[in-house]
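Format notes (please read before filing issues)

Several people have asked whether sequences and structure tokens are stored in separate files. They are not. Every record keeps both together, in the order shown below: the sequence lines, then the token lines. Line labels are part of the format and must not be stripped during preprocessing.
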Amino acid sequence: MRSWLQVLTIALASAAADGLAHQDYAGDVHPRVVVERGQFAIYFHNTRDRLAYKLVVSTTGATLSPRRAIGKATDEVGSPIRRQHGGRSYVIPAWEREHKGQPFYLLGDGKGAPRRMALPWGQHRVQLVHDAAVSDRELVLAVTPGLQLFRFALQGPGVATTRLGEPYRIYDFPRASNLAAHRGSTLIGWIDSSQRLLLSSWTPSTGRVRTVTLAAKTDWNTTLSIGVIGDVLLLARHAPGPRGAEIKTLLQQLPL
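Then the structure lines:
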């Protein structure tokens, strides 16, 4: 199994390198929002000095810790999607050539070789797995074509899905954030084909989808990331500024 994972990682890294040949802006790019100690920590790197940076923002939008360097930048593009939850590891191949249109996951518990777990896709065919979120009860995937969300029950049968729309893409990659959870709903920020910056909320138990427009027009050459604390969502993205690319944030009250 170890050799299979190594081959998969190499294959995905090669494919991602081909797909990400576009040029980033010079400056601060690729934010990643992490909730730490009840605040929003935003990690990113600078394309000029190749250093990694961090800043901390409160739930009111105040900067608690200004931009500071924390080390050398690292590039994680190309790896399979890896998640940890409840002492278990989940490894999900992202590319169609690896999952053959119906993604699976490798489940590890530290007691032996990871087990390959199939998912009940039925007639659905997937191109790219964009992101994954795992909880005690479910696995939620954001996939293409289009921008679709799938919820799979981890205990017993059950699958739900919704299609949010057509995202703006760089090659095969949708301009969309990570997934985040809020009171039984799944949230994702994304840019549609008209370059609107959107935030969508999906509640699998009811099928309810709510989408709000955060900006009528936004730059497509960006990375989006979101985090949730209580009823406040923070979305971070990079965008051109007077001195080069900079990290921009906005807050959204929940629920939508």
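For reference, the curators noted about this record: The radius of gyration is 18 Å. The first helix runs from residue 2 to 19.
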